């Protein structure tokens, strides 16, 4: 497991390299997707922090605190580039990040947020149950179906 902000830095580096439009909202959803993919394909989560059930979708609190200054504007610099240890990420972590990037690179944050709000999504299930945190087993099961593994 990795700090969510290390995963955030990896996505920011990808966005800068690919000249892709990345907002704070999109960053949150990409980390959520990468975590879900990692849960579905491996034995545990990608990040060492809970995914919280906020009103507008899944949020990782530390990432929120570090990137809220961007609001809805583009993140075009990596304010925490010293956290980029991509070479130190496991192959399974890199794959989850790469797969999430393929899913979300050309989609905006609103579209990703809408996807997280689908009726059978882990966020919707947790929200309906009034849970503050989305359980990892809910994410794992959902992403196994998403990836055709179940």
From TrEMBL:
Domain of life: Bacteria
Cited InterPro entries: SocA_Panacea
Pfam families named among the record's database cross-references: SocA_Panacea
Positions of the Antitoxin SocA-like Panacea domain: 27-123
Protein's name according to its UniProt entry: DUF4065 domain-containing protein
């Amino acid at each position: 497991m990795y700090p969510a902000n290390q995963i955030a830095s990896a996505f920011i580096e990808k966005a800068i390299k690919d000249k892709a439009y990345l907002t704070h909202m999109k960053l949150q959803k990409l980390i959520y997707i990468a975590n879900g993919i990692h849960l579905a394909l491996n034995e545990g989560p990608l990040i060492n922090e809970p995914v919280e059930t906020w009103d507008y979708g899944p949020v990782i609190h530390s990432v929120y605190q570090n990137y809220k200054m961007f609001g809805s504007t583009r993140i075009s610099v990596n304010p925490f580039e010293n956290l980029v240890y991509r070479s130190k990420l496991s192959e399974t972590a890199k794959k989850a990040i790469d797969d999430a990037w393929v899913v979300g690179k050309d989609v905006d944050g609103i579209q990703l947020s809408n996807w997280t709000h689908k009726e059978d999504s882990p966020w919707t299930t947790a929200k309906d149950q009034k849970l503050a945190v989305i359980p990892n087993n809910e994410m794992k099961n959902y992403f196994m179906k998403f990836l055709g593994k179940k």
